[in-house]
Amino acid sequence: MWHPAAFSRIPGGNRPQDRPRAARQQNEARVSGTTPAMTEAEKRALRDAFGAFATGVTIVTALEPGGAPRGFTANSFTSVSLDPPLVLICIANAAHSCATFRAASHFGVNILAEDQRDLSGLFASQEPDKFAQTSWRPGAEGVPLLPGSLCRMVCERHEEVEAGDHVVLIGRVVSFDVSEGPPLGYHRGNYFSIGLEDRLVNAIAGAGVIRIGAILEREGAILLREDADGRMTVPVAPGDAPTLPGLIAMLEEAGLSVTLDHLYSVYEDAGRNDHAIIYHGAASGEAPEGMRYVPLEEVPLPRVESMAERAMLERYRQEYRHGKFGIYQGDAERGVVHTIPKARRK
């Protein structure tokens, strides 16, 4: 099944006709030793390009010379070799704990589970004593390890490589243990949970007729489809067997650039006699014919025919005001909201 990095599996998504067309506009930038130094705008664009690669999330730990624990959240982690067993992590030269990690003989890597988002946020923050706010235990060589992580490993310093504004620390794994569970993911500045989205989407995909759509925001307004009678709805994928790639392709063919970041709502719509899977994202470009951008505070909810969709848009308007979003699972009258904290970059 088709499985985009930040989203759950959608039935039928692996068929060639469901995939977005390759002909799309992309930002292109040349980065080489012979080109001039990048502007700040180019650096931001390149950072966004790096963010297109979905990763897991780790917390890297070590001890200061005096024995105090230090740690930071990182997604720049990868395995390097099995023989010898090597991994690497990257740390910015400007990071407060850079000197500690460069001096440490050992460091720990804690690969986070989907329910450790708050822990990731803590270690990505500027809190002065992070370890006083969570439980931890000493591993080999006293390296701090975090309970609940999917994998905890202690590494002996193997090599250090200067790499631009970062340092690459290569470590030899000396001990590790592994737990079962879904991982915490990170993509384009947001956390995502493969486990949660899979469970919600797979449950609804087998329930009968489904509708796949998206709330697409641009500068405080959302894109809505409007029919000849003035009734409004969010854009939805075409056809009797809708797919997420089909939705993206439809919008791009209409001249929009679309970025989806997370699942937003999964609900039963009794009024339409179907089940809806709604994603959240951003759109740029002029509204296609039959659609228009409507400022959130001006969305004419009475003109949204579906009661369930009306309730979803009202919830979105409230969440947008507070900057905190969740995944809704339920129907027009009752349901559960699974909170999605906004990721904080380290």
Looking at the overall shape, the CATH architecture of the largest domain is Alpha-Beta Complex
- What is the CATH topology of the largest domain? Nucleoside Triphosphate Pyrophosphohydrolase
Number of distinct beta strands:
20
Low-confidence stretches: 1-32, 327-332, 341-346
What is the percent of helical residues?
10-25%
- Overall average residue pLDDT: 81
Order of helices and strands: HEEEEEHEHEEEEEEHEEEHEEEHEE
Evaluate the radius of gyration: 23 Å
Largest sheet: 8 strands, mixed
Structural class: alpha+beta
CATH class designation of the largest domain: Alpha Beta
N-to-C CA distance: 33 Å
Question: How would you name the CATH homologous superfamily of the largest domain?
Answer: Nucleoside Triphosphate Pyrophosphohydrolase
Shape: elongated
How much of the residues is beta strand, in percent? 35-45%
Tell me the count of domains.
2
Q: Count of helices?
A: 6
